[in-house]
Amino acid sequence: xxxxxxxxxxxxxxxxxxxxxxxxxxxxxxxxxxxxxxxxxxxxxxxxxxxxxxxxxxxxxxxxxxxxxxxxxxxxxxxxxxxxxxxxxxxxxxxxxxxxxxxxxxxxxxxxxxxxxxxxxxxxxxxxxxxxxxxxxxxxxxxxxxxxxxxxxxxxxxxxxxxxxxxxxxxxxxxxxxxxxxxxxxxxxxxxxxxxxxxxxxxxxxxxxxxxxxxxxxxxxxxxx
Length: 225
Prior knowledge:
single chain, alpha/beta, 5-stranded parallel sheet, two-stranded antiparallel ribbon
C-alpha cells in the first residue's frame, strides 16, 4: 500500500510538468515540409525520407529545423501545415494563381496551438510576386494578389483567429530587401515578434542538415522558452 501511495504521489507531481508542455503549429513553405509530417497530407513536399542527394542531405525528420526546435525546447507538435512553393499572396511563379497553396488560404488550418511559427515569403521573393502597397483593413481579392496587403491580411487574421496564442514570424535570409523590410514593418504594426535569420547553409536554395541546425539554434535563441 505504501509503495502504491509513493507511485501515486510521483504521478501527481509530474502532472503540472506535463500540463506545461506547449503545443506548436507551423505555417510554412518547402523549408518546413517533410514526408509524412505535414497536414493536410496532400500538401506538396521538398524533404523526403529518401531524398535526391543533389537537392539535400536531410533524410530524417529529426534533422528539420522545426523538429529540432520543438524537441529541444520541450514542446509538442500540434500541426505542421507547410506547402512547398507556397507564397503568402495568391500570385506565384510565372504569375500563376497560387490561391490553393497560399499562406492566406491555409492559415485557418493550424489546430489549437499555444505557439504559431510562420515561416514564409521566400517564394514571394523568388517568384517576383507583385509587392503592392500595404492595406491594413478591408482587403479585396485583387489586393491579395500582392505581397504586402496579403501579408497584412494574414497577420491581422491570425491574431484574431488564434487569441491567447504566441505568434512569431521567421524571416529567411537572402530575400529581396523590399520583402524583408515589409515583413518587419507589418510585424511591428501588429505587434508580432520576428526572428531574422542569417548565414543559413543551403543546398539548391534550401537548408541542408547544417542549415536546419542553424535555423533551430537561431529561433531557439530568440524565442525558446
